[in-house]
Amino acid sequence: MYCKSNFVFYLTLSSFSSRCKTTCPDGWIKFRWSCYFHSTESGSWTTGRANCRTRGAHLVVIHSAEEQTFLSEFTMVESWIGLTDRDKEGTWNWVDGTPLTVKLAFTTWTPRHSPLGEEDCAHIIAGVNSLKNWNDLSCDTSLRWILRKSHSPGKGKKETLE
């Protein structure tokens, strides 16, 4: 079942509505079909990823400019996102296995981004242009992280939490 605001089926409206509501755990923020949480602790990218898994979430995967803008407003300190080129230098992939799209990549990296060296994990920089606030750092740097849980009732697709 897909949940669309312009679809109303009179006889099952109440059961349809209850199945289409996205609820987030206490302290999490809803944006579209997902719930987001900004960690209160700091650690390496790997520590952040492990913490996300223990909460049934993952480091945030950003799918659109709208989501990027939301996260930029949501994030007040530099924070890990689920993007890395650890496997192959210069080939950026999200934690769900999807590659970074060129369209999103060209709008998001800060001028201080350096694609070379041992900076293999991406983070959002707070307080700068929301469409140019990604940077890469050593994965061992201690930062907070952004967690994301996806809730898409009826679509049957689960994101990989590897």
From TrEMBL:
Any coiled-coil ranges, and where? Answer: none
Keyword set, alphabetical order = Lectin
What GO terms are given for molecular function? Answer: carbohydrate binding
Work out whether the entry's keyword set contains Protein transport. no
- C-type lectin domain residues are 31-148
Q: Which SUPFAM superfamilies does the record associate with it? A: C-type lectin-like
**Keyword Oxidoreductase: yes or no?**
no
A single Pfam family it belongs to is Lectin_C
Report what the protein is called. C-type lectin domain-containing protein
Q: What organism is this sequence from? A: Anabas testudineus (Climbing perch)
